[in-house]
């Protein structure tokens, strides 16, 4: 059984973490398969990506059976999680996490690395790390305090409290909650609507928001100016303006 299933529907790529017996906990093979899937997602024909899990979990984080075999955890993180975290942020297209079930530890971090999240109403969000005496990793501290604010992120991560999908929605961690049997189709519908937008503009918007996290106002204004100049060079910009002037719907090509 492949650790990751990759499906393409038009311009949408769906990546399914596929170790359902262990709630898609990450072992070395799953990291590697995700790395390959994210490489495929760089194809310019792919204009939106959905990340989800098989079975009743999104991901329960690090496979704790394999964990015991790891000599240096710092190196394991550098070699396994970090490249995938960075690959998701480097994708110049939206990556949507469709959280289908329990999401814990580094699985929660990974969902937070994505551009936004939708969830099934039976999904849950479990910090996990502190439950076994660890600190959040795989980008968890970076993204959670940005998404939730430092105080709430700290309180949650250090309490290890399980959060329901409804609470996650109220906190702004997920943007939408749907019935479990509607999650896949809603994720596909959302991804298809993003895939029909000006992909290069979306990619540059993603870069700008990432840059804003650590930039001064002057640096941010400068990058906005540079990327706006680049956006005006795209076919989609020309199409958008032409469609507006001709009073018709635009047909964006992602170029
Ligand atoms: O190495 C490094 O790079 C360091 C990185 C560390 C990053 C981390 O992610 S640390 C945090 C690791 N994750 C956890 O501590 C979560 C452990 N799992 C749980 O606490 C619970 O399973 C859940 C709260 C996620 C779900 O609970 P529940 O009751 O819905 O399911 P369950 O019965 O506990 O789990 C179902 C099966 O999945 C079960 O197997 P079994 O008994 O049916 O054969 C369970 O052992 C397995 N499973 C769940 N999580 C993991 C796992 N197997 C291996 N590793 C897991 N993380």
Order of helices and strands: EEHEEHHHEEHEEHHEHEHHHH
The set of bound ligands, ions and cofactors reads: ligand T3D
The tally of structural domains comes to 2
**What is the helix fraction of residues, given as a range?**
40-55%
CATH C-level class of the largest domain: Alpha Beta
- Separation of the first and last Cα atoms: 36 Å
User: What is the CATH third-level topology name of the largest domain?
Assistant: 2-enoyl-CoA Hydratase, Chain A, domain 1
User: Which value, in Å, is the CA radius of gyration?
Assistant: 19 Å
> So, the CATH homologous superfamily of the largest domain?
2-enoyl-CoA Hydratase, Chain A, domain 1
- Nearest-integer average pLDDT: 97
Describe the structure.
The protein is α/β, with parallel strands linked by helices. The protein has 2 domains: 4-195, 2-enoyl-CoA Hydratase, Chain A, domain 1 (Alpha-Beta Complex), CATH 3.90.226; 199-245, Lyase 2-enoyl-coa Hydratase, Chain  A, domain 2 (Orthogonal Bundle), CATH 1.10.12. It is built from 12 helices and 10 strands. The strands form 2 sheets. It has a 6-stranded mixed sheet with strand order 1-2-3-5-7-10, with helices on both faces. Strands 4-6-8-9 form a 4-stranded mixed sheet. Helix 1 links the parallel strand 2 and strand 3 (48-53). Helix 6 (140-148) packs across helix 7 and helix 10 (199-212) runs antiparallel to helix 11. Bound molecules: ligand T3D. The site of ligand T3D has 26 residues, from helix 2, helix 3 and strand 6.
């Amino acid at each position: 059984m492949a650790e990751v299933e990759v499906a393409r529907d038009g311009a949408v790529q769906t990546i399914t973490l596929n170790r359902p017996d262990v709630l898609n906990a990450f072992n070395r093979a799953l990291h590697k398969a995700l790395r390959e899937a994210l490489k495929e997602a760089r194809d310019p024909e792919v204009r939106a990506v959905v990340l989800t899990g098989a079975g009743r979990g999104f991901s329960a984080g690090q496979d704790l059976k394999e964990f015991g075999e790891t000599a240096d955890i710092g190196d394991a993180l550098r070699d396994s999680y970090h490249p995938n975290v960075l690959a998701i942020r480097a994708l110049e297209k939206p990556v949507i996490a469709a959280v289908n079930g329990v999401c814990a530890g580094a699985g929660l971090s990974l969902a937070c690395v994505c551009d936004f999240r939708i969830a099934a109403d039976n999904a849950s969000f479990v910090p996990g790390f502190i439950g076994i005496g660890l600190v959040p990793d795989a980008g968890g501290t970076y993204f959670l305090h940005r998404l939730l604010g430092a105080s709430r992120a700290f309180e949650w991560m250090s309490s290890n409290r399980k959060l329901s999908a409804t609470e996650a929605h109220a906190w702004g961690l997920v943007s939408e909650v749907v019935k479990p049997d509607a999650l896949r189709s809603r994720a596909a519908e959302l991804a298809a609507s993003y895939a029909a937008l000006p992909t290069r503009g979306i990619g540059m918007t993603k870069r700008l928001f990432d840059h804003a996290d650590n930039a001064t106002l002057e640096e941010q204004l400068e990058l906005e100016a540079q990327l706006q100049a680049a956006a005006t060079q795209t076919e989609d910009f020309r199409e958008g303006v032409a469609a507006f002037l001709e009073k018709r719907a635009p047909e964006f090509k992602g170029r």
